[in-house]
Write the structure tokens for this entry.
Amino acid sequence: MEALTMRSGSFGRRASIGLAGLVVAIVMYGGAAFGNVPQASAEPFCANVTLQPYGHYGDRCFAWVWEAHPYLAIVGIETNERAGCVTSAAGEYDLKESWYCISNNNFGEKYVQNTSEPRRGVIRNNNLTYSGRFSGGQLCCWPHE
């Protein structure tokens, strides 16, 4: 259940401010960018998880399958000791877009292609030699039906 909780620390403060701002922007400007958006929510995943070096088993972490959402809007990553990447996946492990990578001790986000196919966030260690701690977040929007 650790992947479903947000640790209290720098990511919690930065992500809550950053993702809260994104929620407000999407709700306010959702009609232009995403269609009618009656509900939006920021969700953490893989909070403070240790990922193995890139190319090794355990180098990435996926949001739970039941956290996949149609019209997923944004996925984000917080890197601590190492550089990391973020993207989205459909189904079990079907990566749908290119990775967006950032340096260590940073926070980055990627807009997800607008599609009704359920997607979920994925984070990855981008360092070839060392493991590192990472956290992910996703911002989900549901269109008005």
Q: What stands out?
A: The two ends are 32 Å apart (CA to CA). The chain has one domain: 2-142. The chain is about 15% helix and 40% strand. Residues 2-142 form a domain with the Jelly Rolls fold (CATH 2.60.120).
